[in-house]
Specification:
The chain has 144 residues and is of the alpha+beta class. It is 28% helix and 38% strand.
């Protein structure tokens, strides 16, 4: 996991830790820390029955790509420290799939950077999810 004074980025099969992300971006200059937590929910509008879990898989370059996105966002939002992680593997309802943290002297830029980072990660990192439903059915979500 690349890490420096401005945070880190990773794709991992390990459980995600919100406090680790906050600590990685927090400095004495930062008065605002914004977090985003994406967790597995028990339903999907397109699912016939209740969702019981998701299985995330990734392209071998996903870790490199999430790092490049984070660097791009740091250049776009130079006053903000950023950390982001996306989990892969089998996740149950309530498990954390995506965690992002942004810290800055002021909240407005931290909010903007965090949203920009999360939306870009979701749009560009090659990670796919297979949804598991209570009746045993599975479906791939978000494939175009």
């Amino acid at each position: 996991m690349p890490n420096d004074a401005r945070g880190f980025s990773q794709v991992t099969d390990a459980p995600l830790d919100i406090a680790e992300h906050v600590a990685a971006v927090s400095t004495s200059e930062c008065g605002a820390v914004v977090t985003f937590i994406g967790q597995v929910r028990d339903h999907d509008p397109d699912a016939v029955t209740r969702v019981v879990g998701l299985e995330y898989s990734s392209h071998p370059d996903a870790g490199r790509i999430i790092g490049e996105i984070t660097e791009r966002m740091r250049a776009k939002h130079p006053l903000v420290n950023l950390s982001v992680s996306h989990r892969v593997g089998r996740l149950e309802v309530g498990d954390l799939a995506l965690v992002a943290a942004a810290a800055s002297a002021h909240r407005a830029v931290a909010f903007a950077a965090c949203e920009d980072l999360v939306e870009t990660v979701k749009a560009e990192v090659p990670i796919w999810k297979k949804q598991h439903e209570i009746d045993g059915a599975t479906s791939w979500v978000g494939l175009v």
